[in-house]
Amino acid sequence: MNTTKKYAATALAAALGVTVLAGCGGSDGTSAGSGASKGSGSKTVTLVTHDSFNASEKVLKQFTKESGYTVELLKSGDAGSALNQEILTKGSPRGDVFFGVDNTLLSRALDNDLFTAYEAKGLDRVADGTEQDDKHRVTPVDTGDICVNYDKKYFADKKLDPPQTFEDLIKPEYKNLLVTENAASSSPGLGFLLGTIAAQGEDGYQDYWKKLKANGVKVVDGWEQAYHEEFSGSAAGKKAKADRPLVVSYASSPPVEVLYADPQPKEAPTGVSTGTCFRQTEYAGLLNGAKNEAGGKALLDFLISRTFQEDVPLNMFVNPVVKDAKLPEIFTEFGETVDKPATVAPEKIAANREQWVQAWHSIAVK
Amino acid sequence: MAVPVAFFAVFFAYPVSAIVGRGLKTDGTWQFGRVGEVLTRPDILDVLWFTTWQALASTALTLLIALPGAYVFARFDFPGKQVLRAVVTVPFVLPTVVVGTAFLALLGRGGLLDELWGVRLDTTVWAILLAHVFFNYAVVVRTVGGLWSQLDPRQEEAARVLGAGRFAAWRRVTLPALGPAVAAAALMVFLFTFTSFGVVQILGGPAHSTLEVEVYRQTALLLDLPTAAVLTLVQFAAVGAILAVHAVTVRRRERALKLVDPAQTSRRPQGPGQWALLGGVLLTALLLILLPLGVLVERSFDGPGGYGFGYYEALQSAGGSGSTFLVPPLEAVGNSLRYAFIATVIALVVGGLAAAALTRRAGRLVRGFDALLMLPLGVSAVTVGFGFLITLDKPPLDLRTSWILVPLAQALVGVPFVVRTMLPVLRAVDERLREAAAVLGASPLRAWREVDLPLVRRAVLVAAGFAFAVSLGEFGATVFIARPDNPTLPVAVARLLGRSGELNYGQAMALSTILMLVCAVSLLLLERIRTDRSGEF
After folding, report:
1. What is the ipTM, given to two decimal places?
2. pTM of the entire structure?
3. Which long-range contacts (CB under 8 A, 24 or more apart) does B34-41 make?
């Protein structure tokens, strides 16, 4: 045991010595030193999140001005992986606040006692039904809808109405048009599966997927491939001569197609089948064992403040959760409102997720 | 010996065994019954079978296509050789997301094959195999070619003078000398394809899954640690078995070789046969490697208003837009280079010391350590990453949020390259030279410096190049490790690909092209350094 420790110390000294030397020679030293600043504690608050988190620097500076805390970001892979890393390190977390657990994974987080209860200021302003935990262990931050998107040009050329509901998707006129993602590994894929379960019931969804399979649904692994390579409505898909005019994506994808086109078109090239949507809500929570609890609480307050909420749409392409936040014009103009999104209770998802996905896999993939 | 042992104990063995233990231990007792449970599941058996046969097929195909390449690069002198050698290495370091996209553009719908002959290979196993050849071509060319160019051709000529036919001379003289290097290369390729992750995920569709993909799924997505632990152990066992077989083959074939300056061994091709060989190799490289790379470059310029630098200009403005999503591309390049540089230094120190120790002592224990050093290649990045999380969490080793974890993890993958590249050359150094030095009073260190180092400097540079390149393109471990917000190039590319919108996709292609250029330039510089010094041999 003793020797192991000695080896460990030697290795660390060697590795660090080497790297410090190398670091001095090769770097300007601006971005490398997060470890040092973290120890100082009270002035820094660390937000652990997934890779898709995004906010304006301006808005984060605003937080520093108001509260005196500087936000340090720790991005930790995709949403599922980020959460699982938190679960593994619970009790000795790497940061103070975790953002990015959604309703499909919420129960896993709560069952593992990841969060300390805290009722954030302004919680009364969040949209109805988004708050799922009456102990306030998590705070809702944004909502997004996973929906089938369609290629407007394809349906105009064919003089065919785009599908609007889950029922439409199994009709013969839409044969071989839809591409979706692997529900086992992709979050929109799972959302779409849950949407079909909400719509067709726990007893009916397997039959529905058999019909969908017979109607030529294509399953690819990730959103990137479905959207960029298979979907004929996206800019990249056009270039790749993609041939599927229906894809499982987000309700916010059409405005994003407009925002990132040059020149910006007058109309979004894609539309949303509003009857096929599954609503995702993303939550943040104060981590159990956080070193900077006060800073974490201030950050949670800030996440549902108007300043942050109005910054959300154009950075993460989801909707703000508080009712008084104004949507940017590009969302109101090119986006579509989803009135009756499908939802499934988090506890139910937690209890059945594995089994649903397993059954889905044997129908849709094999 | 102490340094590499300690490095592996702390940054590999301890984290990996901790995470496996977490999966297989409940309330302090081992649950080995789980192993049988998992291994009899039909879906897991499917995964095992597919993993094995696609790796075998990929390795065979890679050797078949790349060995002539290794010969041509080692023995022939032709204009543009250095550039080409650097270029064929670029795929090796490209992130798999990018390669997958390039291959889909080539083999998928509307791709080149589709347009010419109506052939589509995406979601077939052919796409996976070809992508594996694309990735690993350089492994064979560099590992085998590196040694081949230092073999004295006069030995083969001598055999021919003594009456052996061209083929017999090659088979009796060159082939045995090359054996260890070929075995090492084949082993590398097998390991990479056995543990293939991104390629299989993107090109194979959801129906094809390797062990590595499954470990990732079970750990990162489902948090089913018991199943992940069993699969990790299976992968361990498989990799261990391969390494054992390899160790036996290498030992049987190993002998001291007379190494010469590669500048003396290569010459212009002579006669139609050699020119045809050169042409064939160049054509293969063109079709298999330059074409997919070319597709990426083409897409990066193919803006909405025709070809132009639109996406590259957009990269500039994206950096200045004041959001936390993107960093200026130059900063990402800087991050990547800095991490890769540090990782290379660590890998060279650890790997170099290990290789030296392995050459010197041939005890059973040391040979075991040889195999151990290769294991990081056979263990999934997510296992190592999650292992770091639960082990390196107490001072003085609370490194979980430190930037140093990224180069450390990259070095872990780099060390085996250093060892593999240096060992065949180090072992080929004539032991009598060392003995002579020792007799003349040199300390072991001095003998190593005066005898081994000059002879292996070339191998060191090749090894450094490999370690650097691997670190530069490393993606798997980097994404699993918490880091401050200074993404490397591959991470930045993946972030862009994760969003809809033409501009984001175009920028991802542009950034991939930049990554490709950075790799090519780094490798090219390396080639230059190497030729400048080769006069010292």
Report:
1. 0.71
2. 0.77
3. B34/B226, B34/B227, B34/B229, B34/B230, B35/B230, B35/B233, B38/B226, B38/B227, B38/B230, B38/B231, B39/B230, B39/B234
